[in-house]
Amino acid sequence: MRITNQRSWLWSLGVVAIAGCSTSHDSINIGGGQTPDPVVLDIPVAYVRGPVPLPADLDDIDVRELGTVAEGSDLWLRARAAPDVPEQNITERVTGGLWSVRDVDASFDGNRLVFAMRMPLIPGAEESEQPTWNIWEYDRTTDVLRRVIASDLVAEEGNDVAPHFLPDGRIVFSSTRQRQAKAVLIDEGKPQFSAQDEDRNEHAYVLHVMSADGSGIRQISFNQSHDMDPSVLDDGRIVFSRWENASGSSIHLYTVNPDGSGLELLYGANSHVTGTGAGGAGTTPVQFLAPRPDENGRIVALLRPFLDTDLGGDPVTIDTAAFVEIQQTTLASSGLAGPAQTRLTTVDVRTDPGLSPGGRYSHVFPLRDGTGRLLVNWTICRLVDTVGRTLPCTPANLADPTLVAAPPLYGVWLYDPRDLTQRPILTPTEGLRYSDVVSLAPRTPLPAVILDAVPGIDYDPVLASENVGILNIKSVYDLDGADLAPGGIVALRDPAQATADQRPARFLRIEKAVGLPDDEVRDFRATAFGASGVGMREILGYAPIEPDGSVQVKLPAGVAFALGVLDANGRRLTPRHLNWMQVRAGEVLTCGGCHVPAGLQPTAPPAISHGRQGLFASVNPGAPTTGQPFPNTNAALFANQGETMAETRARISCQTDCAALLPSVDVLYDDVWTDPVAAGRPADASFSYRYNQLSTAAPTSATCQSTWSALCRITIHYPDHQHPLWSVPRLVLDAGGMVIADNTCISCHSPADAAGAVRVPAAQLDLSGGPSPDQADHLVSYRELLFTDNAQEVNMGALQDILVPGPPDPVTGLPTLVPVPVAPSMSAAGARASATFFSRFDAGGTHAGWLTPAEMRLIAEWLDIGGQYYNDPFMAPVN
After folding, report:
1. For residue 477, what are the contacts with CB-CB under 8 A and spacing of at least 6?
2. Could you give phi then psi for residue 787, rounded to 5 degrees?
3. Which among 428, 280, 432, 278 is positioned nearest to 359, based on CA atoms?
């Protein structure tokens, strides 16, 4: 018999589906017949109601795609959280039922709602002509609905989503407008545009803050992919989900102050295999989404993969006060037993794609009323048979291959973890989806208010006037709280015990992400990236690493940067740092040390997280508390007690011009520490790798080579800066000026000799110019250096691939001939991954001295940032 009573069927099915399918968990009681809760009934609730996406579209909805949502949704309000209370459509007066609504939040006094709303898309229009997501506010005390940014021109500068009230009345939201990043583009001489995410799929959404009237919009985060779903912790910091796309494409939890200072990891960088089947083969990684604080100081978040889970996942609470990973504690909580995560429900919710017997949750809102209860959007698990009947997800039905998943049926529920009950507030309706439920109950106490830093009180106004902050690293030898300096930091920093040549870490390189425009701004070809998979990069500058491993250096404010630790040759020591950092103008960002790169961490126990204050004890606190601070060093540079060497050098330098804080586009070393008398040896020799030592074009301006500023960029393009090196004359002359050897690269590495006769290039490496036959957008030399090629030979006056017997043809069984591969001489993974190339030119190599140290440095830094063909999208050829 076909079931026609949808509502009564749903409640009975809810009990069957969850209680019946629960195996190792307690069941949850879902349905009517519960004793009315007068507290809950007096709480107003708001929610979004709209159509369920078509089944064909459900599997394509990705949490990393923020620009789309089903049209025809509206914001609704109920004066009391009960099924029989009439509901009010708040937005229909504007939308006519045709717009899209998402991302609802309530003010702390419960009187206002803020949300994102967008007009219907225009069929066939370019993206730049489409209506944008705007932030709207509804005041239920006056029944006034308004767009927060009144100006049409300003409102349409970008897509604004995920608004959240700050306790001082301002609004934090995620937006593609990228206001401060666009200002930097102007300073760089580029057109203004909103940069795309690192997948080049849509514009990157990053955090902005504005006043309640829509004025004073300021960008506060500078991620290269999305920063999503901000909310406010009790201490006033903003917590949000960050898509760290460059470091493995995962979404972790981060915090930042409302003025953009204090950005740091909060939780989850190495806890993504914590969902269904955690740790097992084929486990789908989960992401940490929609964080909100509960009344116990924990974070409520949804665990779900990027896609294929019917818009929902599994809610958890996370003890972020004590943990940075599921088993990794903060230093203050050492010894505390994990795990950090606790599932909010005991039903069988699956976080891997496919059916979930316990249904799924798409939204969770902690009531913070002392009960631990939550408002949730939840869908039951349902199946459809061949004649269209909906059936519960019982074990027998789940095992039936003729049954397929039914569309989700999200309603509004009240979940009480005390007795594991889930009461319906809004009956699910076939074809409709309820989402973004929030309570309008007043929240007390208010979170702390973190005011914007004040120049002259909270930071140096001179730094702000230069639009820079300061990065202060205590020691690069401090790796996750362990002193990994050869012989220890104390010995390595003492000139009487160690020379500069014994110190592995010598320089810090600061890299900057290059924003990429969409095709409407610049439809450049992907060949611009070349062999690199890390996008485009520029270099902001270099700073020396002091003997104790410390660094203190100025950095431009409001740009995404990453760091690399280099050896004396200017080559990166560790794998590329792929976490984007930032400083606010005037901010001093202090790091205890570095971390073990993800590629070098053991797989068990789980990888260790870094990037958050209070995780490790510093192993380089600075000078000892008694006795001479730094024995055997220059007496003029004696440190204050507790200072690192970098802090000492900066303090003394700032008595005049603070020159020691300035990075340089050149790689410079001077030994300012060794006292020859006290150390019993001469000072270490100074050296430099300067761009003005090149005979080819420098990748930065003459002004930046003279004086560094926050606008200085090192931008390397292969055809402009690398390829010309292969043609630089490298002649060896005798005493009479006669040429006795020609070490010019193309004199040997070209397909023809000086007389024009065809030949095999030396070492099968062709460094000549001209378009490559493999990729016409690249020069021959680029392809030969960074891509596998075929060995060649001269046959009848022409170069041809060498062919050797291969495996029999799998179809005919006949013999085959295959080319002989030649491995590339370089690797876009970095200079040290290109060791074979550099070994030829380093001391003792077959080509020693043929390239100058400055040229070697230029090649090394280009490879270390990814070996791209171009590092400016406006230099690349267009489609």
Report:
1. 483, 484, 485, 489, 492, 505, 548, 549, 593, 594, 619, 620
2. -130, 150
3. 428
Question: Which among 531, 566, 567 has a CA at the least distance from the CA of 866?
Answer: 531
* The 588-591 sheet, strands edge to edge: 551-556, 468-473, 588-591
pLDDT at residue 280 in the model: 60
Give yes or no for a contact between 581 and 263, defined as CB atoms under 8 angstroms apart.
yes
**pLDDT value of position 597:** 54
CA-CA distances (angstroms) from residue 87 to 46, 74, 400, 435?
9, 12, 40, 15
Q: Minimal CA–CA distance to 514: which of 868, 85, 39?
A: 868
Residue pair 273/252 in contact (Cβ under 8 Å)? The answer is no
- Bond preceding residue 445 cis, omega within 30 of 0: yes
Nearest CA among 781, 762, 758, 772 for reference residue 840: 762
**Cβ atoms 479, 615 nearer than 8 A:** no
Q: From edge to edge, which strands make up the β-sheet containing 537-544?
A: 537-544, 507-513, 561-566
Cβ-Cβ contacts under 8 Å for 423 (sequence gap 6 or more): 32, 34, 37, 40, 413, 414, 416
Neighbours of 682 (CB within 10 A): 10
- Per-residue pLDDT averaged across 504-513, rounded? 97
User: Is residue 870 a contact partner of residue 712, using CB atoms and an 8 Å limit?
Assistant: no
Q: Are 44 and 140 in contact (CB under 8 A)?
A: yes
Residue 171 near residue 141 (C-beta atoms within 8 A): no
Q: 209-254: per-residue pLDDT in tens?
A: 999 999 999 999 999 999 999 999 999 999 999 999 988 889 999 9
- Give residue 57's identity as a one-letter amino acid code: D
Give the per-residue pLDDT at 636.
53
Distance separating alpha carbons of residues 762 and 792, to the nearest angstrom? 11
DSSP letter string over 618-650?
Answer: -S--SS-SSS-SSTTB-GGGPPPTT--HHHHHH
- DSSP code string of 423-481: EEEE---TTEEEEEEEE-S--SSPPPP-PPP-BTTTB-HHHHHTTEEEEEES-TTEETT
Rounded mean pLDDT, 469-476: 95
pTM here? 0.93
